[in-house]
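Subject: Sanity check before I submit

Could someone independently write out the structure tokens for this chain? I want to compare against mine line by line before I put it in a report. The sequence has 404 residues.
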Amino acid sequence: MRPSDTTTEIAEFFEEKKWDKETIQLALTHIISRTSYPASELRTSQWIKENSAVCEITNYAQQKITKDKLYGISHKLFSVKDELEKHLSKRTNELFDLHDTIYIYDLTNTYFEGQQKDSTLANFGRSKEKRSDCKLIVLALVVNTEGFIKYSQLFEGNTTDSKSLLQIIKQLGARTFATERKPIIVMDAGIATKDNILLLRKYRFKYMVVARSSLKKYSPDVNSNPVVIKDKKGQPITLQKVKVADDADNYLLIHSWAKQAKEDSMKNKFTMRYEQALQQIKDGLSKKRGTKNKDKIWERIGRVKQKYQSTNKHYQIDVTANDLGIVTDIQWKPKPVPKREGQYLLQINLDEKEEQTQWAIYNTIREIESTFRTLKTDLDLRPVYHKTDDAAMAHLHLGLLIQL
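---
Independent answer below. Compare away.
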């Protein structure tokens, strides 16, 4: 579709909302500018006047462009967010003949620069960028396999992945061109709680999710054989159907050799640090001023356990003390546990039985990961500098609008 066709399509939507001609022209100017030059409203206004011919496309008077005008139109665009998303979702489906048979759902967050004292959205949480010093806002997206955003929602910064699904799935029926057919929902383990699985069943969605790590008891499906495929780098991946007792869903055990190598490396690093910390405590037993009191020793060991929780659960520690409560020895050894590095389970309620097809469906989740990268880097949604919730939401929505 040519730019003139695209702007005409969106302009018709705004006309239905009774926007006047100049407001529509300003909205189109800001959307096109944001696509070409992701920046603040101040820098965008300067770019439009000094280094762009965007106003020649939209017929908006260039001399009227100010940062305040751009701020204002961002807020106005956000006021029709849901309707605009729905409109663009249907139009992209019609334009590219898409059927939205698969939807991918995931969350990310971005952080604020500033204290955001009066914000109800900004809150401290688990930052994807490791910015635990900053308040966050959570962005939830539903995209199709082509990477088009079908629905978005902003949540408080301390919202966990698993608590956001209900509000999202109530909207999905209206976000597809073929409203009579529900798409397959693909999600990662962070959202695939037991309650959320029940929620998907309640609303009769088909789903493929990464099973929670607590799910351990499964057995190979005797009616199938492992299937070996290759990833993009030529590394082998084994797909094995398995059975979970008292569960009607299908399960696919994935064993990625590349993932195993990475997890083995990380495990070895943390194991080494864990054992070094214990050895340091043990070495203190032979030093004149070293800690030897049994209670104090267990306190130090407790701090090591807390720091390396994922490693500690695989170890047994024994402390030997005399009648006076003086520790004479510390011993530790790994517990015998099944080796599961590089493995995870896909939980599936689809009719599709072919392992490679199931794997291909799951891999559509890479689309949403790509969308998040584009939003945060190319479209400059990280960090957020706005001081009010309304301004922050309008800013984030404008970036999302480019991806629709």
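---
OP: Matches mine. For the report I'm noting this point. The chain has 14 helices and twelve strands.
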